[in-house]
Amino acid sequence: MTTQTAHADGGQSRPHHRSGAGHRAQVRPGVAAAGAAVVVADLDAGNARSGAEVIEVNLTGSFLCVKAVSTPMREQGAGAIVNLSSATVLSGRPDYLHYVTSKAGVVGMTRSLARELGPDGITVNAIMPVSVDTGIAHDSARPEGVERIVGGQSIKRRLISDDIVGAAVFLASPGASAITGQTMVVDGGMNFL
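-> structure tokens emitted (193 positions)
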């Protein structure tokens, strides 16, 4: 299992106003990102073991990242957590049952945590990106698949990591201090909510 906690502001602390508290605390926004190799298999060919591994990494990994950053944020009385889901949750995707299920779980977890951590001055939101060119080769980014994805977008280019980072930085900024429990779709205009 691989998990990573990154700071949306590049590691620089930035003030975040705790709503109604009348003071400012130094916090480092937490971005919970967990990823696993996607097992591409239809329902008949898939198995519970590979599915459980995808759910363990994507959902449990995100939970563990949130758990790690929420304690110090609670102590400070402020913070911002940004989870990464996937735009596949909005439309489903054949042969990606466990992946889509795990990323839908991240959305549910985000909403529940927003209610739980909100009284402590912590916002919790999620980003739903479409396939992003991270420079890492994987089966789900075959040229024909990428062409199909970009063809369905309003903005006809492959998204890059910076597209997602911009959204995460906004959600972790003081300008988003009244936004919580929300899911921001960053998919080049493939889905409209």
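The chain has a mean pLDDT of 81.
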